[in-house]
Specification:
Blueprint (H helix, E strand, L loop, with lengths): L11 H16 L3 E11 L2 E11 L9 E7 L7 H15 L7 E6 L4 H6 L6 H15 L5 E8 L4 E7 L1 H17 L8 E7 L6 E8 L4 H31 L1
Parallel strand pairs: 3-4, 3-5, 5-8, 6-7
Antiparallel strand pairs: 1-2, 2-4, 6-8
Length: 243
């Protein structure tokens, strides 16, 4: 099969989505962007843009890696825009994610973003899923996944140790305070505690019916509060252990 590099017209949606964040990488000491995990479709080369952003270091503590995945549904951009807004916030205020190194895959399906849901064979979708699973399984303390759903309620599923669940609860409460009369009872959380040493998982399911600007703002704000609360909880835990 003849392989050619992807021309700009085949990645216009991706370029429009991430261009500003590539520019952030040029002046931010804490943010790095790259294209990795390449694949080919109809003779053209595609890749998964990824970003790594480092929170402010905490004295006497090693960095904790967290993997974040934005799962796009066809050409939907809500999950990606949520994670990119989080990146923008952290690039300006790295203390929010103190003690964390975040690895962000904002788009899980580059072909779907460009072509929509139609025209992508099942075997190609399987290749994409394999690539995303490889990213999900990179060694990390936790995994955060953002996607859209047909439900009318935002579903927050958290599974992990007490420090992570406490941060999830704090972020959920902050999100519920943002609700207005049109979105009462539209946020629900389920929390499961696991062993302290095990990896944790945070899954955020955003209603497709929500206005995009509201969905992106609410979800990125949830993540900001979660990361801040998690960093604080870890710092307190270390202080207790040190005493």
């Amino acid at each position: 099969m003849s392989k050619t590099f992807l021309h700009p017209e085949y990645r216009s949606r991706m370029r429009d989505l991430i261009q500003g964040f590539i520019e952030h990488c040029e002046f931010s000491d804490s943010l790095v962007g790259q294209i990795e995990r390449f694949f080919y479709f109809q003779g053209r080369k595609y890749g998964f843009p990824t970003f790594t952003i480092s929170g402010q270091r905490q004295p006497g503590s090693g960095a904790r890696f967290v993997n974040l995945v934005g799962v796009n549904d066809g050409d939907g951009k809500t999950a990606a825009e949520t994670l990119l807004q989080l990146i923008e916030r952290l690039a300006i205020q790295p203390h929010i994610a103190a003690g964390h190194i975040l690895r962000v895959l904002p788009v899980s399906d580059p072909l779907g973003l460009e072509l929509g849901e139609s025209g992508v064979p099942a075997e190609v979708l399987q290749i994409l899923e394999t690539q995303v699973d490889a990213f999900r399984n990179e060694p990390a303390e936790g995994l955060i996944e953002v996607h859209v759903t047909g439900d009318d309620t935002m579903r927050i599923h958290a599974q992990g140790p007490a420090t992570m669940l406490g941060a999830s609860s704090a972020a959920t409460e902050a999100l519920q305070m943002l609700q207005d009369e049109d979105f009462q009872q539209s946020v629900a959380a389920r929390l499961w505690q696991t062993e302290e040493s095990g990896p944790w998982i945070l899954n955020l399911a955003i209603p497709r019916s929500w206005p995009s600007s509201l969905a992106v703002h609410w979800t990125s704000q949830f993540l900001v509060v979660f990361l801040r609360a998690h960093a604080t909880a870890l710092r307190r835990t270390r202080s207790v252990v040190a005493q």
